[in-house]
Amino acid sequence: xxxxxxxxxxxxxxxxxxxxxxxxxxxxxxxxxxxxxxxxxxxxxxxxxxxxxxxxxxxxxxxxxxxxxxxxxxxxxxxxxxxxxxxxxxxxxxxxxxxxxxxxxxxxxxxxxxxxxxxxxxxxxxxxxxxxxxxxxxxxxxxxxxxxxxxxxxxxxxxxxxxxxxxxxxxxxxxxxxxxxxxxxxxxxxxxxxxxxxxxxxxxxxxxxxxxxxxxxxxxxxxxxxxxxxxxxxxxxxxxxxxx
Length: 244
Fold this sequence. Notes:
The protein is about 30% helix and about 25% strand.
């Protein structure tokens, strides 16, 4: 089976919310109680993504993965509150498809999107989410020493900030280091869908086939991001609830 990536649209947002619900319930089952993970519901998360997209569609990038005609995963990137940085805010894969390579495909694509925004990227990951942390480690992300405790479904949860430098297409350092990075990502046993959730392979119609992906052409390297839900676009929009 193959998967393709495309730019997300308004009509995708309620499906995105439903997949987000399933992914976080699977990824955080060992961290939060079943009761805590029941809310917000898939419908509520769909409404949340629709509201968020209203404010951020001109500054942020939503990418969706499709397999066999259905939504299989998504990533979301944009400017960060960290000055001069881009942020990986979300990367999720349908739990039934974790391990299929879709998370890695989304990861490589997101790295290119991040490099269009800045020279450095950050993301937030739950401290206890060891699967996600291993995935990020293998992708070249590293904890930068910044921590926080924020609520998920009303439960305070410790989080770590990870960061990595980004390289733009044509950078000679990227040409030397990306083959190793891609090898590490491909050998990872922890797909991005278990936690948070990024190369540039240019194909017609903004679609990339997982079976023909050219890893060596990726412009940079970066991870299912349980990122902050409170991005700042500078437009004074109302605060949105935590969504991870």
